[in-house]
Amino acid sequence: MEDAQYIFSSFKHYYDIDLFEVQGELDWRKFKAYLSDLGSKTKFKEVMEIRMMKIPKDATEEEKENIKQLKKLYQLKADHGDIENDAMDLAERQALLKKQMAEAEGKEVE
Questions:
Q1: Residue 97 in contact with residue 88, Cβ under 8 Å?
Q2: Secondary element (H or E) of residue 102
Q3: Global confidence as pTM
Q4: DSSP 8-state secondary structure symbol assigned to residue 55
């Protein structure tokens, strides 16, 4: 995952949780809840804000260039489908696979 370093450092900074130490112990649902509630002063949230940032119409040329450089620095390399697949937990992946197999066989999905 491209954002792993930002997530790891943000968890350590905000929650004092070392994700390497709790690997295999931290429930996926808890991880997702913690991730969604990270404080705005964490690196991960900062990166997300940069990615979503719109360039203000009244920005100077220098400000526009700075924003463009930051956006380029933090842009994701993977395509959107890869990102969504990485974010799914095992149950979600299994359900998606079951649906895809059923569709391929022309069956209705429960």
A1: no
A2: helix 90-104
A3: 0.63
A4: P
Distance (Å, rounded) from C-alpha 5 to C-alpha 28?
Answer: 18
Task: Assess contact for 74 and 67: CB atoms under 8 A.
Answer: no
Cα separation, 51 vs 15, whole angstroms? 24
For 64-73, b/e burial (b = at least 16 CB within 10 A) is eeebeebeee
Q: Tell whether the torsion through CA atoms of 32, 81, 79 and 22 is positive or negative.
A: positive
Cα(9)–Cα(41) distance, rounded to whole angstroms? 12
Measured between alpha carbons, how far is residue 78 from residues 1, 20, 83, 85 in Å?
9, 23, 7, 11
- Longest CA–CA span in the chain (Å) reads 57
Q: What is the mean pLDDT of each run of 10 residues along the chain (110 residues)?
A: 91 96 94 93 94 93 95 82 60 72 66
Q: Are 11 and 17 in contact (CB under 8 A)?
A: yes
Q: What does the pLDDT read at residue 1?
A: 75
pLDDT of residue 95: 73
